[in-house]
Amino acid sequence: MTRLTFLGTGGGRFVTLTQERSTGGIYLEDGYKVHIDPGPGAVHALRRNRIDPTQTNGIMISHCHPDHYANAETLMEGLNTGRLGKRGFLIASHSVTKGRGKVGPAISQYHQEKMEKVITLEPGNRFEIGRLNGTATPAFHSDPDTVGLRIETGDGIISYVADTELRDEVIEAHKGARVLILATTRPLNARIPNHLSTEDAAQMAEAIKPELVFLTHLGKKMLKEGPRKQTRWIQERSGVRTFAAEDDMQVLIRSSIEVISRRRNRRYRIRPFNPQEQENGAEKVEPDIEKT
Fold first, then answer.
1. Is the pLDDT score of 188 beyond 70?
2. Half-sphere exposure of residue 146: CA atoms within 13 angstroms, side-chain side
3. Collapsed DSSP state (helix, strand, coil) of residue 100
4. Nearby residues of 83 by Cβ (< 8 Å), 6 or more positions away
5. How many structural domains comprise the chain?
């Protein structure tokens, strides 16, 4: 079984500052334990979810903006607490590990040298560490080195689309994903450069046809407009089951997928993917979600 925990579902400078939603990133467990984009609030979110940061195997960072990396060095120290020698891995964009121009590096040489392995990603690069395999995907953001992540788990492909404008290259890179996580900062009719909006998320969902889409990295305007309103709009247009992720939400991925909302005290079981049902459109979305 593969487990995802949304340690934080906020994004952008205003939500990062107010912590209206945490910006703690995503925790992936599939044999290895990996913390993706540990921004401000990550350390507290780990404690809140009773996750021991000293047991994490590695950290992945999509780009050099503080809402994606600010707690990383603290967590890298934690990987090596009480141990001799180097331990853990860092997989990150060029801007995070090396810097480019006025951007980065985000992680000091001191902390990078604590890691057993440091991998710098460019779009198209594959990474293989133990059971963790995947590919860096293209992104089009104000940090030009930003990458997305296409991670191959024992329960299918999980794709994380970090901050980016929508381009055909981004869509193509994530086809075949079973679970699609989209950093969707802006709501309907509020698109801005370098970020995905609700309209973009619907277009990606319709083109990729994953079993399940999660919206995360929600900005101030998105929260004001209402994330659930956005997910309904995406489902109606794409026919793909869509959740607005919540802080501390867990996703258990097996032959079926179970979504646990602690905030709403509900569990949702998503039946296995049926391409024939998917072709029938949005009417089939809601019946495929069983509340337990």
1. yes
2. 23
3. strand
4. none
5. 1
Three-state secondary structure call for residue 172: helix
Which range of residues forms the domain containing residue 245? Answer: 2-291
Strand partners, 21: none
Tell me which DSSP letter residue 284 carries.
Answer: G
Q: Which amino acid is at 5?
A: T
Q: What Å distances lie between residue 41 and 16, 117, 209, CA to CA?
A: 9, 25, 32
Q: pLDDT of 208-247, one tens digit each?
A: 999 999 999 999 999 999 999 999 999 999 999 999 999 9
Residues 201/184, Cβ–Cβ less than 8 Å: yes
42 alpha carbon, distance to own chain's centre: 13
User: With contact defined as beta carbons under 8 Å apart, do 124 and 135 qualify?
Assistant: yes
Of the candidates 73, 180, 192, 81, the residue with the CA atom closest to the CA atom of residue 142: 192
Burial letters 184-207, b for 16+ CB under 10 A, else e: bbbbeebbeeebbbbbbbbbbbeb
- Helices assigned H by DSSP within 184-281: 198-208, 220-225, 227-238, 275-279
Q: Is the model's pLDDT at 287 over the cut of 60?
A: no
- Rounded CA Rg of the chain: 18
Which amino acid, 143? D
pLDDT tens track for 122-140? 999 999 998 889 999 999 9
Tokens 């909006």 -> residue:
197
Residue with tokens 């480019």: 100
CA pair distance 256, 112, nearest whole angstrom: 38
CA distance 95 to 162: 14
CATH of the domain at 189: 3.60.15.10
